[in-house]
Amino acid sequence: MEVRLKSDAAVAAALGRRFARQVGMAAAASAEVAVVVSELATNLVRHAGAGGTVELWREEEWLFIRARDRGPGMVEPERLFTGRDGRPGPLPGESLGEGGAAVRRLTDAVQVTNREGGGLEVVARKRVVLQERRRW
After folding, report:
1. Partners of 123 in the beta sheet?
2. Phi-psi bin for 133: left (phi > 0), alpha (psi -120 to 50), beta?
3. CB of 51 within 8 A of CB of 71?
4. 25 FRET partner, CA 20 to 30 A, in 5, 16, 87, 130?
């Protein structure tokens, strides 16, 4: 989905949660997917200028979430995940905030790279643990 506005980020998060439920993930895990999508989509709006895209798909036991932007990229992309260490806000030149750290905590693996030609790509994956159906 294209993300340019704050409202697009909210829609992307809701669609991410729905997709996670459709592939059989439990409510808690699908809520975590929604948080990850929300954080990545919000970063597209706040930092990329022209926005970008968020995609979700499933391969075997993994749910993948990819965010791509058309911004300038980052000198040190891994800094996206550092967090603020409990401080109320990042100091100049420090972390962007808590969103990247949340993405790292809520997924099983995440990579961030500068895209050739400009922009940043974040790919996260979360193991699909199917919700056990209740039998009455």
Report:
1. 66, 111
2. beta
3. no
4. 5
What's the pLDDT score for residue 119? Answer: 87
For residue 111 the two structure tokens come to 């990579």
Strand intervals (E) in 10-115? 52-59, 62-69, 109-114
Which residues, given as ranges, of the chain have pLDDT below 70? 79, 81-97, 131-136
- Are the beta carbons of 106 and 17 closer than 8 angstroms? no
pLDDT of residue 109: 95
Please answer whether residues 54 and 28 qualify as being in contact, where contact means their C-beta atoms are separated by less than 8 angstroms: no
Structural element, H or E, at residue 125: strand 120-127
Residues 27, 21, 108, 114: is their CA dihedral positive or negative? Answer: negative
